[in-house]
Amino acid sequence: MKKIILMIAVLIGLTACNGNKFHIDGTIEGAGDTTTLVLEQSSNGEWFIVDSIKVGKNGKFSLSADAPQVPSIYQLRLGNQTICFPIDSLDYLTINAKLPNFAREYSVSGSEHAEQVMKIDQEAMQFAAGKGTPAELQAWKDKQARQIAADPRGIVAYY
């Protein structure tokens, strides 16, 4: 019995030392080893740098950071272009993008909420570019309003 309690205590101690982290990896097509990605977190309308990383020669990157205690909005910034996504605890996201249109030509997978935010962003960019009729834009806005009403305290509604 003492051995079991000791093992549990050691496991708890190891977990506490390592901390809870979320992970992001992916590939930036067209990026080289001089490309720097910056991970930022939103707090009260301001962005704070969490970490940065140089992309590998093959465009691959991998980073992790302490998991937030409550769901939060983060962004991956490359120069003046950003990709926004929510993180809820121990998420493991994959982000793939292409240069030079990092903020437009990208995909996010690994989290239902992150995929929803990506879809909202991509649809909004199409309407901002003048694609779609006024009726389609209104239908899209109505759909977003219904999504917010369905889960008003959710991270996607917050975004």
Summarize the structure.
The protein has 159 residues and is an alpha+beta fold. The chain has helices spanning 2-18, 112-128, 134-150, 155-158, and strands at residues 21-29, 36-43, 46-54, 60-66, 72-78, 81-87, 92-98, 106-109.
Count of strand segments: 8
Order of helices and strands: HEEEEEEEEHHH
Largest sheet: 4 strands, mixed
Strand arrangement, major sheet: 4-1-7-8
Number of helical stretches of at least 4 residues? 4
Mean pLDDT: 88
Q: What share of the residues lie within helices?
A: 25-40%
Report on this structure.
The chain is an alpha+beta fold and 159 residues long. It contains 4 helices and 8 strands; from the N terminus they run αββββββββααα. The protein has helices at residues 2-18, 112-128, 134-150, 155-158; strands at 21-29, 36-43, 46-54, 60-66, 72-78, 81-87, 92-98, 106-109. It has a 4-stranded mixed sheet. Strands 3-2-5-6 form a 4-stranded antiparallel sheet. The longest helix is centred in the first third of the chain and has 17 residues, at 2-18.
